[in-house]
Amino acid sequence: MASRGWAEIVVHFLTMHQRVVDELGRRIVGGAWEPGDPLPVEDALAAEAGVSRGVLREAVKALVAKGMLRVRPRTGTRVLPPEHWNHLDRDVLRWKQSEDATALLHDTGELRRIVEPEAARLAADRAGPDDVRVLYDALAAMEAAAAEPGRGGYVEADIAFHRALFDASGNRLLGSLGRAVDIALEHSFLVSTRTPGAVEASLPGHRAVVRAVEARDPEAAATAVLAIIKAAEQEIAQSPGLPNDAV
User: Fold this and answer.
1) What is the share, in percent, of the chain residues with pLDDT greater than 90?
2) How far apart are CA 182 and CA 146, in angstroms?
3) pTM of the predicted model, to two decimals?
4) Any idea what DSSP says for residue 70?
5) Which of 31, 30, 27, 62 is nearest to 45 (CA)?
6) d(Cα 61, Cα 56) in Å, to the nearest integer?
7) Do 122 and 169 contact (CB within 8 A), yes or no?
8) Which of 39, 77, 153, 192 is most exposed, with minimal Cβ within 10 Å?
9) Where are the alpha helices (H) located in 127-246, listed in sequence order?
């Protein structure tokens, strides 16, 4: 009983901690405080959030680690400008998705244009049989999901495909980057696949990527990936309910 009670206390603390991190993070991304502004005094902010000062301090530490806050003995806790934030942090990506979806889509598209064609070139040069098999498995999952009513699981399979491509590059930093931007890719794919016909249109391009990697043709792999990215940008621009300046 004692150990269960302790576990419940820990879970409760972590839940409150994440809630406060989320609340403060969203407010910072949403512009509730300008860069350089101090946060309200600790007692007032803890009371507003309905948590203890200990929980608040841990939440502040988490945001400091994300590059969003700076704590100094004399000047207190101040908000840092966006250029200091860790924009690959999963929480920061979630908050940007909620507060500034258009900017996140734009940044994701630019990042993909810069990184994915080179990852595809490296994959075509370095991928082994297991890497190619994983790509084919992800492609098969995309095809199966595309054939189902409602296309449940398609976006997840699409993310797995691009993650596998990063891994197949043989560059561990690119592999980690692929996993770091999962949330940004998910947001982009959810928007792009709303356009009628987008899912069906994307499958041939993904097949072309796998075949080029398997054939060890770096330029064909890079060209196929860039075509996928360009098509996604067009689909996002035409997606229902999205501003015209989203890409």
Assistant:
1) 68
2) 20
3) 0.80
4) E
5) 27
6) 9
7) yes
8) 153
9) 129-146, 154-168, 172-180, 182-192, 198-214, 218-238
Report the length, in residues, of the chain.
247
What are the distances in angstroms from CA 6 to CA 12, 15, 59, 114?
10, 14, 21, 48
Residue 85 Ramachandran class (φ > 0 left, ψ -120 to 50 alpha, else beta) = beta
Give Cα separations from 155 to 48, 186, 193, 202, 237 (angstroms).
38, 7, 8, 12, 18
Distance CA 165, CA 135 (A): 7
DSSP 3-state of 38: strand
Which tokens hold the place of 32? Answer: 């509730």
Please give the Cα distance from 120 to 222 (Å, whole number): 5
pLDDT digits (tens, 9 = 90+) for 117-131: 999 999 999 999 999
Q: List pLDDT tens digits, range 184-193.
A: 899 899 888 8
> Would you state the structure tokens that stand for residue 22, as one six-digit string?
């989320």
